[in-house]
Design a protein that fits this description.
Number of helices: 3
Structural class: alpha+beta
Radius of gyration: 15 Å
Helix content: 10-25%
Strand content: 25-35%
Shape: globular
Order of helices and strands: EHEEEHHEEEEEEE
Length: about 170
């Protein structure tokens, strides 16, 4: 696991943050933070890439941020942004991997925190990464993790990327 603060150049991060927090950015409702686990953390999502294809007109926000270059991405499996409303107490969601276990080989997951709040990401080993704007946590996709809701801000926003650094997966994108 690797944690990097001030991951993107500040001007590029600010543009990405402004785009994702724009009142016209399209968000889609999910009753839970995970499709297959009911964790009492409802969220809005916006899928940039799923099933190996780009399905968002806002994908250019990511390209312009240089996040793909900074992460050395060669094949993007899944990429989405999540927005959670605050809860009364910090709730830890269900532990999961973003992809099916058989799809995690040679795949990396990165979470870029878009805003600072008292939520974060909890890992099965007990480590918690706090939500700090422009912080990225990078880990093997087979590592189970869970969202931690915030109580102190109007929303918690994270960009979640699942990708290969291996050039043999370039055809996946």
């Amino acid at each position: 696991m690797k944690i990097i603060d001030n991951f993107l150049p500040q001007d590029k991060f600010n543009k990405l943050k402004k785009g994702l927090e724009n009142e016209y950015f399209p968000w889609f409702w999910n009753d839970h933070s995970l499709v297959h686990i009911e964790d009492n953390i409802p969220q809005f999502v916006h899928a940039f890439v799923s099933e190996g294809g780009i399905n968002s007109d806002y994908f250019k926000l990511l390209i312009e941020s240089d996040i793909f270059l900074k992460l050395n991405i060669h094949g993007l499996c899944k990429c989405k942004v999540n927005l959670n409303y605050p809860t009364q107490t910090n709730i830890v969601g269900g532990f999961h991997t973003d992809l099916h276990e058989e799809d995690c080989e040679d795949i990396t997951t990165s979470i870029l925190y878009i805003n600072t709040n008292n939520g974060g990401t909890r890992f099965e080993n007990g480590t918690t990464i706090n939500s700090v704007a422009n912080r990225v946590v990078i880990f093997d996709s087979s590592t189970k993790h869970a969202p931690v809701s915030c109580t102190d801000k109007s929303r918690r926003i994270v960009l979640n990327l699942n990708y290969s650094k291996n050039k043999k997966h370039e055809h996946d994108n």
